[in-house]
Amino acid sequence: MSDNGKVAISVSGITLHYGSFKALDGVEFEGGRGQLIGLIGPNGCGKSTLLRCINGALRPRKGAIMIDGEDVSVKRLAELARICSNVPTEFPTDFNLTVMEMVMMGRYPYVTGLWWEGKEDEEKVKDALSKFGVEHLKDRKTSELSSGERQRTLIAKAYVQEPKVMLVDEPTSHLDMRYKLEVMEYLRGLAEKDMTIIVASHDINLMAKYCDRMIIVKEGRIVSIGRPEEVITAQLIRDVYKVNAIVGLDEDGDVYAIPKSSIKALG
Fold first, then answer.
1. Most buried one in 15, 33, 94, 120, CB count within 10 A?
2. Low-confidence ranges of the chain (pLDDT < 70)
3. Residues contacting residue 17 through CB under 8 Å, at least 6 positions apart
4. CA-to-CA distance for 11 and 3, rounded, in angstroms?
5. Which residues pair with 196 in a beta bridge?
6. Are residues 50 and 157 in the same domain?
């Protein structure tokens, strides 16, 4: 774990309702600089809602969110974008933007003059294109990209915002095995450069392999938080997912889970 002991994000008592439905209920955790944090749980548990509270898209009914000691609720979106960036599951392909143009959009929080970008912005974007392996695609339309290429482009766009915290929602859901590993390697590398990254995912094994910490969410509440080998147990998977599973450690010491049967199906 590359955590340097400094808190980058603090989430305190977050509660949010959709009408009478309580989507988040007293969610609390801290994330240190240099940590890659996995946010997992079943569909509808509140993972994406929590990310949207952190990035300012939703305002919780109660609680507070601090990034690098700053309260996100009092910041304008452009200000918040300088300390928190987002990597969505997908982006619209009907914008007809090139890869270069898409990544350049990540520099919008820093635009101060009449022109959309300056030389410094262009250099940062070129560096990101190279870093995430899409430099050769810079003139390609985003609508023409493969799923893996799109995901790397989205990460590059979030990276050029120079955030303290990066939020990543289901980054590998449409990728094959190779690209899943590549995307997680990119995110691991960013965390090691002192960025805090929170990844919402359904893939327990992938999160357990790469993440420093795991946050397990069920019905809007955190039910467990800690290192993967501490929190991923057969009992937890049974309680949270209603699935019987075999949980063990591989030869590298990474925890893995093999689902065996649905508890409901057995009943």
1. 33
2. 1-5, 92-94, 112-117, 265-267
3. 23, 61
4. 17
5. 165
6. no
Cβ count near 191 (within 10 Å) = 24
**Shared-domain flag, residues 76 and 175:** yes
* 66 shares its domain with 169: yes
Domain span at residue 108?
91-162
- Structural domains in the chain (count): 2
Q: Which string of DSSP letters, residue by residue, matches 185-215?
A: HHHHHHHHTT-EEEEEES-HHHHHHH-SEEE
Is residue 22 within 8 Å of 62, Cβ to Cβ? no
Task: Indicate the residue among 122, 142, 162 that finishes a domain.
Answer: 162
Strand partners, 139: none
Return the residue matching tokens 């430099």: 135
Does residue 255 fall inside a structural domain? no
Q: Let me know whether 18 and 74 are in one domain.
A: yes
Look up residue 80 and give its amino acid: L
For the chain, what is the total number of helices (H) and then of strands (E)? 10, 12
Contacts of 167 (CB under 8 A, 6+ apart): 51, 54, 55, 84, 85, 86, 87, 197, 198, 200
Q: Note the pLDDT tens digit of each residue in 154-166.
A: 999 999 999 999 9
Same-domain pairing of 6 and 136 = no
Residue 104 in any domain: the answer is: yes
As a whole number of angstroms, the distance between CA 85 and CA 218 comes to 25
Give the tens place of pLDDT for each residue, 15-38: 999 988 999 999 999 999 999 999
Task: Indicate the length of the chain as a whole number.
Answer: 267
Helix, strand or coil, per DSSP, at residue 83: coil
